[in-house]
Amino acid sequence: MEQPLVIVDAERSDRGYWRDVWRYRGLFTFLAWRDLLVRYKQTFIGVAWAVIRPLLTIVVFSFFRYMFDTTIPLEDVIILVSVATIPWQLFATALGESSGSLVANSSLLTKVYFPRIIVPLSTIIVCLVDFLLSLLILAGVMIYFGEVPSSNIIFIPAFILLALLAAIGTGLFLAALNVKYRDFRYVVPFIIQLGLFISPIAISSTQVYESDYPDFVKNLYSLNPMVAVIDGFRWSLLDTPFIVNQTGLMLSLGMTFLMLIVGVWYFRRVESTFADII
Amino acid sequence: MSAAIKVENVGKRYVLRKEGSRSYSTLSDSLSSVFRSKGTKEEFWALQSLNFEIQQGERVGIIGRNGAGKSTLLKVLSRIVKPTTGRVELRGRIASLLEVGTGFHPELSGRENIFLNGSILGMTKAEIKSKFDEIVAFSEVEKFLDTPVKRYSSGMYVRLAFAVAAHLEPEILIVDEVLAVGDAEFQRKCLGKMKDVAGTGRTVILVSHNMAAVQHLCERAIYLQNGKLVESGPAEQVIGTYMRAAQGPAAANLAVREDRNGNGKVRFTSLALRDANGNEVSALTCGQEGRIELQLSNPGKSTVNGLMISVGIDDNLGNRIALLSSEVTGQITNVSGAEVSVNVIIPRLPMKQGTYGLTLFASSNGEVADWIQDAVMMNVDAGDFYNTGKMPPDGQGYICVDHRFDIK
Question: What's the confidence (pLDDT) of residue A102?
Fold first, then answer.
């Protein structure tokens, strides 16, 4: 039998890292399976949590939108907000869970070897399951108000993937920072909270792009990766225009991929020191 | 035969921060340190220019005092930490067992934890499935397989964890001191299992304080001291060197020991063994009076209130078999003066022949002042405890209990 040769060299970074990640895919599955089991062991709380959070967000944001702007009927507001809240929740939980995952699993990190990137990646699975549950809310809302999804719905998986990529890039970056600087655990909830308000949840991107704000404000708004995701969800389900502002869309997509590259790069750079400092 | 492990010039440096013992920092720490004068960092080489090879199928024990770098070496070999210098070549699948039950989740059942722990240790799902029944039988927890492990007794927990680990089949198995857990019966079972594993041509690396286990399991040993390799060779020979060094002169100089904890209000400086007549001896004798003479320094020269001193006695498996403490004898006192002399008198030493580890502990008003684990190895010679010229056979306990039979 051929035996794998592993060389650990102080001078060089690990070769065959991504091959190792593939070899440890079993561990990835098991970690995700563990998180799922633990989360849904107390079935009621597990399911309720996945449903209550988006539900409350929808109620509150619809209420405020309708309070300050009665030009569109309440049911349209609820649909508009629901379609945005569901992918936002996916992004927010994935970001929150992945950025805290290394510290939460510190006992694993100091006792066994495996490519560390598996830990934050595996947390995404629980978030995806929560997301599938919350899709039921969305379906419920749309059926209740008799809203028929547009044929663009087939593109939904692409936007789910986009939301995950945005969460992974930022999540890896913050997870690695969290190991070195423990106060990042206070920063992450703040980022998520802020994100909720600067993302087009209660408003639509069209309102921002067609407003008379200066261009740099519009560009700043577009730097949020969730702008493209939420616009994409609304386009897929409600057939609202997707490309309102080409620069804006490019900025939003660009930011997602930039964060992904930065996140993976930084994670890989500091990964070998995790066990020393955690 | 080719080398399974090749270690070339490996060193590992840690940077110690003076304030606090945390290794991580906070961003606010880092930002505020910009404004402070720097220079509170201290470098520490846990391993230094190590070179050795381990052949395929060899069983090697790594021995040395606490803080000699054994655990760091294991972590480098198992790829958990990266060396600062040099390189390591590893041929074959590696499994490392640095603690029992890595990744066990308290909420999950025994069954679920077997799968989880197995996969963390590097087994595939198919491997775990095929060994599942064996693992369960070995662990002796069949009845509680579907109970969350948080409801397990610590014994059950350890048995289940070791059962999973014992059924790993890597080409290289790296084990740290895990034998020092569980009851004696289970320890024997584990030792047997380890021997089986080693017998199948696998490479085994074992770190242990238990010289008997190392001698029993390993053909070769590597002796580390202060991160450097002192000797590598046949197990018996290297263990001999280590034991001689560990015992050292009967009066051990403790002032230079670095591997200690506590606030330093008082510090142990030396230890000597004396017999009933006050003569210094290299070993105490079973059944006779023995004295452990301790010298402490009081660097502050102020009065130390509520001084409590204890001496823990461990067997060669690292199990605490007795604690001699001035608290239980009701002798907590206040002392002053730069030197404190303490004599621990054991009227009739109950320990049987063997080598025991002494852990020294001193506290002042409940705060740890000085604490040296495994400060010295104490030898006990055979003696006539029962005044009958007879002793219980070896393997039948470590302690002689004063007793008599009343038979009618």
Answer: 93
Alpha carbon distances (Å) from B286 to A73, A234, B379, B381, B398: 93, 85, 10, 6, 11
Instruction: Say whether A107 and B102 touch across the interface (CB within 8 A).
Output: yes
CA distance A128 to chain B (A): 21
Strand order in the sheet with B228-234: B94-97, B172-176, B203-207, B59-63, B220-225, B228-234
Q: How many CB atoms lie within 10 A of CB A8?
A: 21
Q: What is the pLDDT of residues B279-311, one digit of tens each?
A: 888 788 888 899 999 999 988 888 889 999 999
Sequence-distant (≥ 6) Cβ neighbours of residue A103 within 8 angstroms = A178, A179, A182, A185, A278
Contact between chains at A275 and B80 (C-beta distance less than 8 A): yes
Contact: A112, B96; criterion CB under 8 Å: yes
Strands of the sheet with B290-297, listed across from one edge: B252-253, B267-275, B290-297, B339-346
Smallest CA–CA distance from B25 into chain A, residue:
A181
pLDDT (tens digit, 9 = 90+) per residue, B323-343? Answer: 999 999 999 889 888 889 999
Query: pLDDT of A80-124, one tens digit each?
Result: 999 999 999 999 999 999 999 999 998 889 888 889 999 999 999
- With residue A60 as reference, give the H or E element that holds it: helix A43-68
For residues A75 and A241, what is the distance between their CA atoms, to the nearest angstrom?
Answer: 20
pLDDT at A224 over 60: yes
Chain-chain contact of A26 with B89 (C-beta, under 8 angstroms): no
Contacts of A110 in chain B (CB under 8 A): 75, 80
Contacts by B238-241, CB closer than 8 A, 24 or more apart: B238/B63, B239/B61, B239/B63, B239/B211, B239/B214, B239/B215
Question: Minimal CA–CA distance to B87: which of A15, A23, A278?
Answer: A15
- Interval B218-238 mean pLDDT: 90
Q: Do A8 and B82 touch (CB under 8 A)?
A: yes
Q: B220: which DSSP letter?
A: E
- The rounded distance, in Å, linking the Cα atoms of A18 and A4 is 15
Q: How far is B25 from chain A (nearest CA, A)?
A: 5
Q: Is the pLDDT of residue A2 over 70?
A: no
Contact B116 A34 (CB under 8 A): yes
- Rounded to the nearest angstrom, the minimum Cα separation between B85 and chain A is 5
Alpha carbon dihedral A260, A262, A266, A267, in 10-degree steps, equals: 0
For the record, the structure tokens of B121 come out as 């240790």
Pick B81's closest partner by Cβ from A11, A108, A275: A275
Averaged confidence pLDDT in chain A = 89
DSSP-derived letter for residue B365 is T
Residue B249 confidence (pLDDT): 46
Q: Tokens at residue B201, please?
A: 């041509």
Across the A:B interface, residue pairs with CB atoms under 8 Å apart total 120
Q: Which of B27, B92, B119 is facing A183, going by the closest CB pair? A: B27
How far apart (Å, rounded) are the C-alpha atoms in residues B356 and B210? Answer: 11
